[in-house]
Amino acid sequence: MMVEQNKKIFKWQLRVDGSSNTHGSGAGVVLTTPEGDSIECALRFDFKATNNQAEYEALIAGLKISTVLGADEVEIFSDSQVVVNQVLDEYQAREESMITYLELARELLERFKEYRIVHVPREENEKADALAKLASATINIWPNNISMIRLLRSSIVKTKEVGAVFGERNSWITPIKEYLVNDILPSDPLEAKRLKYKATRYSVLNGELYKRGYSRALQRCVGPEEAEGILRSIHSGNCGNHAGGASLAHKTLRQGFYWPTLFADSKRVAARCEACQKIANNIRQPPELLQSITSPWLFAMWGIDLIGPMPTATGGAKHAIVAVDYFTKWVEAEPLVHITETNTISFVKKNILYRFGIPNTIITDNGTQFDGRKFRELCDKYGINNYYASPAHPQTNGQTEAVNKIIKHNLKAKLATKKGSWADKLPQVLWAYRTTERGSTGETPYSMAYGAEAVIPVETSFSSPRVQLFQPEINIDMLKCGLDELEEKRARTNKECGVPTEGSQILQLACA
């Protein structure tokens, strides 16, 4: 009679397996119903996990799915000898994380009327093993018949419940929104600090998360499912022009939408468009050597002008030479004792060429210091286009003229009656100009040039948040976050691109 009881056939059968490697970690779950139907699910972890932890995550996810689907008795098969024997109390769990996993697994097992857990060889657990390897692999394309779910955090991490819609549970939006709305942070101190820095560019308005962008003032943050619809609408909707991947991504940004994998997703949508494939031009040219792809030319156009004469400063300086970059509005200036071609050439080399690289264009007036033989030879030597403003229309170099007015105004405000110390105050004026928002760009020249705001004295005197919370390793990460596309490139470098959730809602709810 005891033999017959041990050979009882359970109505539900659950096969689980976990996998962890250098690329990532994941789990595979195969649940067979009493009717013989098979539910297959792969889980990718957005956190680091050892092989034993991945095995426990697979077991816990499988038990949650079984509970949601109404299983009352289940037979569990796992190829992890450690997990099976710890659950059966034959092995002792010593590590704190293993103890916590074991307690959670036993808590879930108590929900069943009856269960049996069995250790099986890997070759008898092929389906779950294949799903686990698929989830931990570095690929972003998944079979349509397999549910893929992303787990943002470990099952043993305690978090507060958030009243968010179901679609945001496994979304990249959730951690940022949880912090901004409910002040919830990850349990990992390092991840918590990273989230705090990242959240400074986000805000919540009317329940929606927005990111402060460069192409638009505010860009609405969207999840994976909504992102797919936005891209297809812009690409092939009523106003779609079947643009390529890069054009599609930039148009999406201009329309006011954002998510971290925008550029990668845009390329994928454009590449898989059937209409684009049918009407694509056939390349009939023979293969040739690869050609370099052009990249942006930073600090490509400078305007240069003179200020003066001004009161004689220390050292006899009566003039100042000023250069401004037309895109970032970055300004370089230097006091001059004599206006000569040699001094002008020295200024261009030291403050432009050696600091910002070779520009494409320099715009000046018709002064002899800019129109001399040596200055022309300098421009010819480095391939710089030297354009001159017409004497009848000096506004053709109006950018520099406008900057000159600002510098002179700020110098007057700082000097009061001590007019002769203007040369000593010039660096302070330049610093103030570079860290003040310009109306034409909506950004400070410092931010336009370096992708982040400079730390000014008031922040160190009154301890601003970024001074108080400064950490060198976090700062290195944040320096990489500049423009919209750079944030996505950083995500692709440090971590695999996020995988759009394709699992059914009931499976996601079980593993959430």
TrEMBL record:
One of its GO terms (biological process) is DNA integration. Residues 292-453 form the Integrase catalytic domain. It holds the Pfam family RVT_3. InterPro entries: Integrase_cat-core, Integrase_H2C2, RNaseH-like_sf, RNaseH_domain, RNaseH_sf. GO terms for molecular function: nucleic acid binding; RNA-DNA hybrid ribonuclease activity. Residues 8-137 form the RNase H type-1 domain. Gene3D superfamilies: 1.10.340.70, Ribonuclease H-like superfamily/Ribonuclease H (3.30.420.10). CDD domains: RNase_HI_like. This is Uncharacterized protein.
